[in-house]
Amino acid sequence: MPTIHVTSHLRQVAPTGPTRVEAGTLGAALDAYFATAPRVRSYILDDQGRLRHHVAVFIDGELLVDKKDLGRRVAPSSEIYVMQALSGG
Q1: How far apart are CA 65 and CA 76, in angstroms?
Q2: pLDDT per residue as tens digits for the range 29-81
Q3: Distance between CA 50 and CA 36 in Å, rounded?
Q4: The pTM is what?
Q5: Which structural domains are found in the chain, ordered by start?
Q6: Scanning 33, 39, 75, 89, which has the fewest C-beta atoms within 10 Å of its C-beta?
C-alpha cells in the first residue's frame, strides 16, 4: 500500500504522520487519503481536480512535473510526499 506524507503546515487539517492507502495511481491514492481527511482536499487540489500550482508532489523521490498527471502509476511500496512548492525570483 502506498504511503502518503504531508508537510507539517497541513497538520491542522491532515492526519498526523504518514498514511497508508490502497491505490494503483496517484489520483486514487489522493482520493483514498481525502476519504480519511476531507478538509485537506482543497489545500492540495483546485476546483478542477488538478494539483494546485503551489503544491509539489514527489513519488519515490521523483518530482511530478505534470500536475495533471494524476493517473501516474504508484507501486504498493511507493512513498508519496505532498508539500508546498517554493517559488520566487
Answers
A1: 21
A2: 999 999 999 999 999 999 998 999 999 999 999 999 998 899 999 999 999 99
A3: 19
A4: 0.90
A5: 3-84 (3.10.20.30)
A6: 89
